[in-house]
UniProtKB/TrEMBL annotation:
Residues 240-498 form the COPA/B second beta-propeller domain. Keywords: Cytoplasm, Cytoplasmic vesicle, ER-Golgi transport, Golgi apparatus, Membrane, Protein transport, Repeat, Transport, WD repeat. This is Beta'-coat protein. It is found in: Cytoplasmic vesicle, COPI-coated vesicle membrane; Golgi apparatus membrane. GO terms for cellular component: COPI vesicle coat; Golgi membrane. InterPro entries: Beta-prop_COPA/B_2nd, Coatomer_complex_subunit, Quino_amine_DH_bsu, TPR_COPA_B, WD40/YVTN_repeat-like_dom_sf, WD40_repeat_dom_sf, WD40_rpt. One of its GO terms (biological process) is endoplasmic reticulum to Golgi vesicle-mediated transport. Residues 515-657 form the COPA/B TPR domain. The coatomer is a cytosolic protein complex that binds to dilysine motifs and reversibly associates with Golgi non-clathrin-coated vesicles, which further mediate biosynthetic protein transport from the ER, via the Golgi up to the trans Golgi network. Coatomer complex is required for budding from Golgi membranes, and is essential for the retrograde Golgi-to-ER transport of dilysine-tagged proteins. It comes from Cyclopterus lumpus (Lumpsucker). It is a peripheral membrane protein. Belongs to the WD repeat COPB2 family. GO terms for molecular function: structural molecule activity. WD repeats lie at residues 102-145, 146-187.
Length: 658
């Protein structure tokens, strides 16, 4: 079975819907109603988004409509001719007579669709005889008849992405059939009376359904594409059931620009016996596991030869590639080592999800439990509902993403070992001190990867960010949903994939990440070694990071920006350097700032010079009188008079009794 999750995203009540289409990029659905109006719905906000247009001059019952891809705001309406024949006919464009006729239905055919994917040129038809027929139109034979609908079949659709056929009928149901086995997978009845149209969308899991009483959008299966990259830059993905691979290294010296689609040579690896919903490389890149249809198959990454297989809803690798775990149903976890089952257990609170990495994570309705891989001993239970868990390569840091925010934790294996040894501090919730919370960040992580102590991730707001030491740095704003594949240090680049299996990349310097990692570990020896490899133009970013982490001295050493350096010199009380920078900048404001600092530090001759440079006569007067310096008062009187500062000139003369 396919085990596709089916979620309802929009229910919109209206008059009878004759035809519907989903927008290629916006969250919009357009529906043409039998009554002659066209409504555009936003399925994110759940409200009609556009004014409702009434069409007057057309025969509405014959309207078919689609979003025009060229101008996304324009809806194109096309008259569709309805031939109530018990057969399907195929014409060559421009020809007056049909090339051929497919005969087989007993009553009028209402709808047909072509099968886009695969090597077989198939056609599907639905008719008033309540049957759906699949045709091989090269040899003009009916290869399958789908029986089940209890009334006239009104619409048929080969899903553009998933291996399914959707059929709608006047019996009020939409049926989901497997397009390879023709098995009935699901029957959907939303109680909106007769079904009139079904519309899938390339590159998306959303399907729009039109009924007598309105329209519905459903989402089928996973959002994320089945795609995985190993650490050497080989990317593998599944296009329907076909597995393909591209090698980033084979791009050679071709220039790569941030955010642009990479043109890659694609190699067919063969087809998979199950419909892959996920693909994951083992951490060492030697194997890939494909999961779907409630089963998994582990292949060699090189040749896609099957190495092991079994049933599982979910499959996760341990950090060391020699172990993995599967989840069967919502209670059973199995742990394997070297492809042999080592342990099977039922976690106390059930198993709704499983996570790989340094520890084995199991999610249940009551929270998350971490187990060690060796003996499946409970390490720690945490009250959290994780969506994703990402471990850093060293196993020291872990990011746990939830529906609202993400947490960064430090894992403390020494404490765990000590607690296990002494048997103290071990409660029914595991070892209290196993983790230390470093931070919580609002926002939803979609996909992520650690590089050193930097956590790079895509957010639900389509930002590409990274987190280091409590700080978020935005690398890019993405124009659509993208999924992180990984980071290749040699290229200084991050790679991301999208639903249509395009790959793009963004530059992110390894030296910067390494430097920041060293700083977070307070390892300034390493930081100093890395610093010369950071290009000049990146130094200021690093300096800002250092300052925010409280390392002003280091920030001052790294920064090349005179403004920032002056600020830092002031904060650090480095009067000499600040003086030098103020002289270089010839800025009155800087002299004033420095004068203030020099005064505070009782460096009166420096303060005097600064006030003089800043032409701050009021300040000079205060300094001269407060320090009882008659000579200075005398000089100030002359200077002030020359500069036309009569108030100060008057006061100084008055004080001197002149
Ligand atoms: C619309 O077209 C159908 C089929 O040709 C026809 O039966 C119907 O009378 C037309 N309706 C109007 C309002 O013109
Ligand atoms: C359909 O017939 C036309 C001639 O009428 C021919 O040129 C074309 O190749 C045919 N197409 C198919 C798909 O058989
Ligand atoms: C037509 O092709 C299908 C496969 O697409 C095959 O199952 C069927 O037997 C063929 N029919 C004839 C009459 O050749
Ligand atoms: C099914 O189609 C027939 C025409 O073939 C029509 O008479 C009948 O009313 C339709 N059934 C329903 C439930 O509308
Ligand atoms: C894996 O290979 C074995 C032996 O060739 C074969 O019997 C089995 O059907 C294959 N299974 C899968 C799931 O590919």
């Amino acid at each position: 079975p396919l085990r596709l999750d089916i979620k309802r995203k929009l229910t919109a009540r209206s008059d009878r819907v004759k035809s519907a289409d989903l927008h290629p990029t916006e969250p919009w659905m357009v529906a043409s109603l039998y009554s002659g109006t066209v409504v555009v719905w936003n399925h994110e906000t759940q409200v009609p988004t556009s004014a409702i247009h009434t069409l007057t001059s057309l025969n509405h019952s014959l309207l078919d409509l689609t979003f025009k891809t060229l101008d996304p705001l324009q809806v194109s309406l096309t008259a569709r001719s309805v031939a109530s024949l018990p057969a399907s006919q195929v014409w060559q464009l421009g020809s007056r007579t049909p090339n051929f006729t497919l005969e087989g239905h007993e009553k009028g055919v209402n709808c047909i669709d072509y099968y886009g994917g695969g090597d077989k040129p198939y056609l599907i038809s639905g008719a008033d005889d309540r049957l759906v027929k699949i045709w091989d139109y090269q040899n003009k034979t009916c290869v399958q008849t789908l029986e089940g609908h209890a009334q006239n079949v009104t619409c048929v659709c080969f899903h553009p992405e998933l291996p399914i056929i959707l059929t709608g009928s006047e019996d009020g149901t939409v049926r989901v059939w497997h397009s390879n086995t023709y098995r009935l997978e699901n029957t959907l009845n939303y109680g909106m009376e007769r079904v009139w149209c079904i519309c899938g969308q390339p590159g998306s899991n959303s399907v729009a359904l039109g009924y007598d009483e309105g329209s519905i959008i459903i989402k089928l299966g996973r959002e994320e594409p089945a795609m995985s990259m190993d650490s050497s830059g080989k990317v593998m993905w599944a296009r329907h059931s076909e597995v393909q691979q591209a090698n980033l290294k084979a791009m050679g010296e071709a220039e790569v620009r941030d955010g642009e689609r990479l043109s890659l040579g694609v190699k067919d690896m063969g087809s998979c016996e199950i419909f892959p919903q996920t693909i994951q490389h083992s951490p060492n890149g030697r194997f890939v596991v494909v999961c779907g249809d409630g089963e998994y198959i582990i292949y060699t990454a090189m040749a896609l030869r099957n190495k092991s297989f079994g049933s599982a809803q979910e499959f996760v690798w341990a950090h060391d590639s020699s172990q993995y775990a599967t989840r069967e149903g919502s209670s059973m976890i199995k742990v394997f080592k070297n492809f042999k089952e080592k342990k099977a257990f039922k976690p106390d609170f059930g198993a709704e999800g499983v996570f790989g990495g340094f520890l084995l994570g199991v999610r249940s309705n009551s929270g998350l439990a971490f187990y060690d891989w060796e003996n499946a001993d409970l390490i720690r239970r945490i009250e959290i509902q994780p969506k994703h868990i990402f471990w850093s390569d060293s196993g020291e840091l872990v990011c746990i993403g939830t529906d609202e925010s993400f947490f960064v934790l430090r894992y403390l294996p020494e404490r765990v070992a000590a607690a296990q040894e002494s048997k103290e501090e071990v409660t029914e919730d595991g070892i209290e001190g196993a983790f230390e919370v470093l931070g919580e960040v609002p926002g939803v992580v979609k996909t992520g990867v650690w590089v050193g102590d930097c956590f790079i991730y895509t957010s639900s707001l389509n930002r590409l960010n990274y987190y280091v030491g409590g700080e978020i740095i935005t690398i890019a704003h993405l124009d659509r949903t993208m999924y992180l594949l990984g980071y290749i240090p040699k290229d200084d680049r991050l790679y991301l994939g999208d639903k249509e299996l395009n790959i793009i990349s963004y530059s992110l310097l390894l030296s910067v990440l390494e430097y920041q990692t060293a700083v977070m570990r307070r390892d300034f020896g390493t930081a100093d070694k890395v610093l010369p490899t950071i290009p000049k133009e990146q130094r200021n970013r690093v300096a800002n990071f250092l300052e925010k982490q409280g390392f002003r001295q280091q920030a001052l050493a790294v920064s090349t920006d005179p403004e920032h350096r002056f600020e830092l010199a002031l904060q650090l009380g480095e009067l000499e350097l600040a003086h030098q920078l103020a002289s270089e900048a010839e800025s009155e404001h800087k002299w004033k700032q420095l004068a203030e600092l020099a005064t505070a530090k009782c460096q009166f001759s420096l303060a005097q010079e600064c006030l003089h440079q800043a032409q701050d006569y009021g300040g000079l007067l205060l300094l001269a009188t407060a320090s009882g310096n008659a000579g200075m008062v005398g000089k100030l009187a002359e200077g002030a008079e020359r500069s036309g500062k009569t108030n100060v000139a008057f006061l100084t003369c008055f004080l001197q009794g002149r």
